């Protein structure tokens, strides 16, 4: 019975389930539903069993139609009366009861906090419920996929990071915030940006510019690029954290804003772009609500050095790790397009990578005044 | 002549020089002064020489009276006509001319950007002005100490990080921002928080709480600790970056707010606190304008586990690196006080470290509702 309930829930991961009364199923309902299924099994003297969608490369595929990396239908059983599964079953039930408290108390907390919340010595034994966070994090991920609820909907977050400014007014936890009046610092993007926390009140932006590096973001902000070009300017400081990705998703989805990604020209930059666009293999179950398949790669391209006349001595030679990574990336199905193969091959042929900061050799504001505007105007981006 | 000018400037590093007209010397004046001294040497057919204060452990001392780590008077000569010094001389003059452009254009930029700005092939040779950033960063630090100007006054920054909320209104680059209405994200603390960028307009805060971890900061913010206790709530996400330290300095100095530092109970937590309070050895020349000697260590203390009845299984055993670091720290003169020796010895005796998140085992909000308020009330902190 619990098994069936688990399966049903998996299918809901991309579309919220509605109960017969037409009311949307809340995350709380989902947690309670899981508990009730377990109790139901016990009442019927059956072996309580959780059925957890498999989070592994074998159960991941790239959907060409939707343009995102998706999780398959494979699941694995986790019966309570089974030596190899009893502990993980206990951990999953314990974690879900703590997650329910978060829902009831309307609080949010970190995955590290959840580890400490759930850690104790099992009564009458010397056994710990959890020994370290490496045990509790996967249990949270199990629950995400089993319940079909994003971690953020479970009110749990990783470390927040990133900043945003632009011609938009939001409501964050009740505070109305004009993102066009955030000075040099910007609004710090929280980890949880679900609609019950962050509301979009008014938006005059025409697109989103996601900048890999915080220092480059500061350049665009200081030059008030977002004002001149009417855009939301956001950075995730390297690989964007979940809050930044989810916020980009929501702005692209709800406000229909095109998303441009600006990264260094190296394999890691390509990869950052691809995670924003298609999602990641490890967290494929979130792609449907995190990935933005319309995202555009505005730069830097391996062709930019020639196009913008950037001296060769500002490039950095690709090292063995870069070359290996570039070849790996070329084999991902989402980089299979002719234009991407051409791009990556050109980088390998030149044998160098190029950082966004290299553009400063011309002028401090070359990147904001010339480079990006020209690329936008000429529609010189990759899809 | 340049040598003498250099020396004079060193002495000003703690107090801004005033010219004979009584006007404050600007950073621009300082850069131009350096250039004029070099030109003066050339005009007199002397060997142009920069005299750079020595940035080394040998030239650093802990001033018990002021409570900060300070730089000594030692300097080293850098003559142009000297095989071992000519390149560094050229680099220093080149960098200062680029820094002057930043002043004139009223722009700020990153140290990485400055590397690319200054990098080119010397005309008629195959020699690069700078090969990599490891060469340009020390030149910026040389100029900081030689000119007696903080990096931020030179308009150059490292990566920004950190967030702040609280009962205060600031003006950031012309935008008036109410930090009490910043939602769950907060205001992202920029890297440069000098008075010409960030002004304090109105402040109802009674103290500052600097929280090591971003996730814990979110807990305090969600619980509106800053409203109940009238405090500025700030995080630097680990070792606070320069912007966060400088902002704490300015709030402590200009607004006379006491500063409490909340870190994990481990040697790294003690060290984070000490850098905030006394400054660091590497950057001793900045202590006078970055360190907050009045800062108080609010926790976590090795005595907290007993005091707050935290189960032992939530502690983590100290590893060899922790123990070694703790012993190093005990030998720093600024940890020589009896109370600090007692504190660190107790941690070593218990043989464990304790994370802030361990407090969540009691209740999600135990840290914000009970732990910190009780410590503040009982004045249970270390100085």
Structure description:
2 copies of one chain form a homodimer. Chain A is an alpha/beta fold. Chain A has 2 domains: 2-157, Winged helix-like DNA-binding domain superfamily/Winged helix DNA-binding domain (Arc Repressor Mutant, subunit A); 163-377, Dna Topoisomerase Vi A Subunit, Chain: A, domain 2 (3-Layer(aba) Sandwich), CATH 3.40.1360.10. Helices cover 40% and strands 17% of the residues of chain A. In chain A, the strands form 6 sheets. Chain A has a 6-stranded mixed sheet with strand order 10-7-13-12-14-15, sandwiched between helices. In chain A, strands 9-8-11 form a 3-stranded antiparallel sheet, with no helix packed on it. A two-stranded antiparallel ribbon of chain A has the order 1-4. In chain A, helix 9 packs parallel to helix 12 (320-331) and helix 12 runs antiparallel to helix 13. The model of chain A is unreliable at 1-20 (pLDDT under 50). Chains A and B meet through helix 3, strand 5, helix 4, strand 8 and strand 9 of A and helix 3, strand 5, helix 4, strand 8 and strand 9 of B.
CATH architecture assignment of the largest domain in chain A: 3-Layer(aba) Sandwich
- Describe the largest sheet of chain A: 6 strands, mixed
Greatest interface? A-B, 62 and 62 residues
If you consult CATH, what is the topology of the largest domain in chain A? Dna Topoisomerase Vi A Subunit, Chain: A, domain 2
**Low-pLDDT runs of chain A:** 1-20
Oligomer: homodimer
According to DSSP, the number of beta strands of chain A is 17
CATH class identity of the largest domain in chain A: Alpha Beta
